[in-house]
Amino acid sequence: MARSGKVAVVGAGFYGSTTAQRLAEYDIFETVVLTDILEGKPEGLALDMNQSRAVEGFETRVVGQTTGPKGEGYEAIAGAEIVIITAGLPRKPGMNRMDLIETNAKIVRQVSENVAKHAPEAVVIVVSNPLDEMTALAQIATEFPKNRVLGQAGILDTARFTNFVAEELDVPVGSVTTLTLGSHGDTMVPVPSASSVDGTPLTEALPAEKVEELVTRTRNGGAEVVALLKTGSAYYAPSAAAARMAKAVHEDSGEVLPVCAWVDGEYGISGVYLGVTAELGREGVRKVVERDLTDTELAALKEAAEAVRAKQADVQSL
Ligand SMILES: NC(=O)c1ccc[n+]([C@@H]2O[C@H](COP(=O)([O-])OP(=O)(O)OC[C@H]3O[C@@H](n4cnc5c(N)ncnc54)[C@H](O)[C@@H]3O)[C@@H](O)[C@H]2O)c1
């Protein structure tokens, strides 16, 4: 496919910069714009990434742009078909994602208002935490149609689950299929019934206690990395997930991926941003794809929906 279009990444921290790098190395966009409020940081990272082009063999240009408190510099994202919002604080050891809500809500609201002004046609992919709430807030602040605002969590959580299963069984990750739905937090819903190893259901490949252990480790996957790093949170797997979503949108691929999307009647759940599988294309979410779930999994998904619904109602005022 020929190189085309512009994707913007707001926030040039660990998550944003690795996402920009992955997008540039895909070599499918004309331009990747990277912004941050830290004077010179996005410009410096862009310069560095552009200098890697001759070695890595890609032509996409990375443009760095410092933005100001009144939205100065946001002209750089004009015409972006996709904007990925990574701006916001990460967790520290012992912190819950929800502890970030007030600080990150201010940041995500300010960013979203500038996105709406300068890239009114964009599909917005949110990654800032707490994820489900920040996705809801970005939709409110941009006033974009709900299909054009989505969040990244499910691809990452699923990738973590897959990695744990592959390591446990000592098999290639490519032979493992898993799925997680629900929230990006305590009410995450790993779905063993949709998981398999070389076609064998996970529930037959591993004893029930082991599956439960891996499910718990998946639910705590982010905290495990945060505890080891001491400062900052995971970014290699998270950036791979966000870049993958942007690629699906850019290529209008129709891929069905686990993402945080607006749910409107599917699974008997309405009016909430929640982790579900959805078909992605140029317009963002083409449709939420319902899967067969066991009664226990469906009950857990409904519980997750109610937990995030209450919090998402609160973000309106933040
Ligand atoms: N959804 C997920 O699966 C997932 C996974 C990992 C991390 N995260 C979240 O992603 C966010 C970023 O993580 P990180 O590791 O890159 O953190 P980081 O601290 O390395 O980077 C955050 C960047 O945001 C910038 N920033 C702050 N306010 C801004 C504003 N108004 N406009 C533009 N930029 C602004 C900061 O200057 C900083 O460079 C955090 O909220 C983290 O919790 C989400």
From TrEMBL:
Residues 156-312 form the Lactate/malate dehydrogenase C-terminal domain. Residues 6-151 form the Lactate/malate dehydrogenase N-terminal domain. CDD domains: LDH-like_MDH. It comes from the Bacteria. Keywords: NAD, Oxidoreductase, Tricarboxylic acid cycle. Belongs to the LDH/MDH superfamily. LDH family. This is Malate dehydrogenase (NAD).
